[in-house]
Amino acid sequence: MASLAVVAGVACTAAAERDPQVHLSGSSTGASGSAGAGTAASVVTVSIDALNPRALRVLGRAATPTLHRLIDRGASTLNARTERELTLTLPNHTGMVTGRRVEASTGGHGVTWNDTRTTPATVQAAAGHQVDSVFTVLDQAGLGSAVFASKPKFSLWQRSWPTAIDKLEITKGNGALVRHVVADLSNPRAYRFVHLSAPDDAGHEHGFMSRRYLTAVKRTDRRLGRLVAAIDADPALRRDTVLVVTADHGGKGVSHSMPTVFANYRVPFIVRGPGVPAGTDLYDLNPDYRDPKRARTTYAGPQPVRNGDVANLVTSLLGLPAVPGSEHDAGQDLDVYAR
């Protein structure tokens, strides 16, 4: 039975924990060996809300050492794309876990709002059809997952997939949230989704690419560094964990609501883990994906790397089938390992 708790003044819902013995057992997840050949024992996705790739260039390596090290030691692009329809937090994050576009009438997840409303109550109700997620795929395989988010609107996911997400924690303070994620690493979960909101908060209040925004990016880099250090300090986690870092959107001025603005629809996509070739451009690894340069892309023809690729990259890394009904990386052909 789900339990109700309060973390940093925000209600959070946590499903009952599974038997730890089932989380990483079985050959399908590669739990008994090291990550590689397309298989990991665990995956951590970190979405940095409103991380404009330009901030990494402006701040440089000295101010954002963690993100630069992940780029140096993994496969990445600073020219990935959001969903085409909307450059908003909840629609893009829901795309990350369902592998679907936004527009419900063409098979999307239907989440067009960006607040805590409870009508529609679920993703399925918004879409008008069944919508699976990375969490339901893991659940069907007997694998555990957790979500650590810093905005209450993510409670939509618990209502939508109530038995599939083992733990949903909503904590406003990003520093406290990262501490809770680090503490949770001792639990044998296959997947963790982490949302860090500080850059978005600063951007809306002071302007994206403002001094306050850049300071928030620097602090987020340090917090990400604590999580990376905790993974690397544990031999099993270091051997078997793949880290994926992306963003839901960028930002310009004090907004990111216009989906036609380059600064809003361009996002980073970084993958680091055992077997991932260091310092590699994702478009070089994936000639069947097309670097969009500055273009705002449609869903027709060769695709760019999208933040919505997260769902099926995760299922692929864990040796699981694609999310049913998904579109982004539905063929699980986004390569992060050299062929």
Characterize this entry briefly:
Helix content is 33%, strand content 16%. With 339 residues, it is an alpha/beta fold. The protein has a single domain, classed as Alkaline Phosphatase, subunit A.
Keywords:
two-stranded antiparallel ribbon, single chain, 339 residues, eight-stranded mixed β-sheet, 10 strands, 33% helix, Alkaline Phosphatase, subunit A
In one word, what is the shape? globular
The fold-level CATH name is Alkaline Phosphatase, subunit A
- What is the H level of CATH, i.e. the homologous superfamily? Alkaline Phosphatase, subunit A
Structural class, from secondary structure content?
A: alpha/beta
Number of domains: 1
Task: Provide mean pLDDT, rounded.
Answer: 91
The major sheet is characterized as: 8 strands, mixed
Give the strand tally.
Answer: 10
Q: Helical percent range? A: 25-40%
CATH hierarchy class name: Alpha Beta
Strand order in the sheet with the most strands = 6-5-7-3-8-9-4-10
Tell me what portion of residues adopts beta-strand conformation: 15-25%
How far is it from the N-terminal to the C-terminal residue, by CA?
45 Å
Low-confidence stretches: 1-37
Order of helices and strands: EEEHHEHHHEHEHEHHHEHEEHH
Number of helices in the DSSP assignment: 13
Please explain how this structure is put together:
This protein is an alpha/beta fold and 339 residues long. The protein has a single domain (3-317), classed as Alkaline Phosphatase, subunit A (3-Layer(aba) Sandwich), CATH 3.40.720. The chain contains 13 helices and 10 strands. It has helices spanning 53-63, 65-72, 89-98, 123-127, 134-140, 155-160, 174-184, 198-206, 211-233, 235-240, 262-265, 282-285, 310-317; strands at residues 3-7, 10-14, 42-48, 75-81, 145-149, 167-170, 191-196, 241-246, 266-272, 280-281. Strands 6-5-7-3-8-9-4-10 form an 8-stranded mixed beta sheet, with helices on both faces. α8 runs antiparallel to α9. It is globular and about 45 Å long.
